[in-house]
Specification:
Helices cover 0% and strands 45% of the residues. It is an all-beta fold and 173 residues long. The radius of gyration is 27 Å and the shape is elongated.
Length: 173
Amino acid sequence: MKVTAVNQGAQTGENLVVTLDLPPGLELAKGQSAVVVRPRLAPDRPETITWQVRALGLPTGTLTIEVKAVAAGAKPTSATTAIVVPELTPEFRVYPQSQTVPARTDGKPTMIPISVKLAPARRFFSCRVTVTYDPAVLEPLYVSRGEAFVDAGKLLSPWSEGRKQQGRLVGIG
């Protein structure tokens, strides 16, 4: 978000304070302050202030951002702008494949594949997945990346099968 402050007076402005007021659903990047102070603002010399703002995903729709400016000896002013935060569609889902597990087995392992689907995977770089299971009923045998993180026939790295903990596979990705 960029804001340009202009001193339209004949004298240099003193102690310009510009405040960004964000609605719920928007937040400043870490380390940034919503209040910016400039000790001096010369006449007809625009001062641009930039904030990095990110949408949290909720609420969606039109959100109003307000910027307020005040300087010593000047009349306070404000401006608003509206941005549209689209409703986000999940691009990452984890679900077990349809599987029937027999009530009785012949003592051999029954495979229950769990698939991770990325659709569509625009600008998708990495993920970490934790699978929780009942160790009295299931025992994980292996984790495969399948076709994930493969580009032009080459395996992309890093890849981790995760680590086994009590009833969990942690850090698959």
